[in-house]
Predict the 3D structure of the following.
Amino acid sequence: MGGVDESKTAVLPAIISNFSHHIAAGLADGSVITGQNAISHPSEPTALNQTVSELSKNQNLNPLALGSDTTIEDANLPGSLSTLRQPNIAFSKVSEKPLPARIERIWYINPYGHEMCPAPNPKVLEAINAAEALIYSIGSLYTSIIPSLILNGVGAAIARSGGPRFKILILNGSLDRETGGFTAADFLDAITRACIESQGLTVKSSRDLDKDRWKDFVTHLIHLEGDGVPMVDKKELWTYGVESVRLYGRKGEDGITRYDGKALTQALGAILGKREKGEKSRRNTLEN
């Protein structure tokens, strides 16, 4: 897939478990949201759901006919949070209502809402320890990337002497519900805080974060230039030891600027010091 040599590729789950794991988000205003979908892209009510609600008044109706397992006793632990009973495949990204406040922290919870600290897959730690480079790819910051970083020991493996030499963040080309109003510095703060807290340390808020720790977890940041992309203060990043690489992407019909695949590949190769023989840099798409 994607032209990658499968013999040199391994897909490793961050957690090994027979059970579902859930996350919660603590917002800056003190409120808490439980469940990945509720944080990132909550479901929109539909006419069908309203009809089903009316139908559910009939006690003889089979719960399976409702298209939801939230009312089926055997499908959920007694007393578990109702917000965690919804199927993860039911979500909508058509309309994203902004969060009432910024996300400050992400943590794992059990079905009853209590915080827990699951152990990471040992092979994940082995892979980090053996890696020359670690790449934080494009994706949902708080519901995709951060949950892998807050696992016990992950931050220490990334930051340790002899660990990955290159720690590259590919900055999203647009902002979403989780990151509304974020700058590149906010992304770095979130990753750094998650890695620090995975070591059993407490960070009261992102405002208390020491920016000198950025370089322990991110050494390079690749970002796009264009409308709607997160703002990058190159001078600030350089001051705290993070090198930035700017790319000129392609704007789609939806108005969102996206990375050019070849330019991104070349940027990664340039950072790693690896370039195919005879390959020329795409100067029109790459600028340090």
Remarks:
- The chain is about 25% helix and 15% strand.
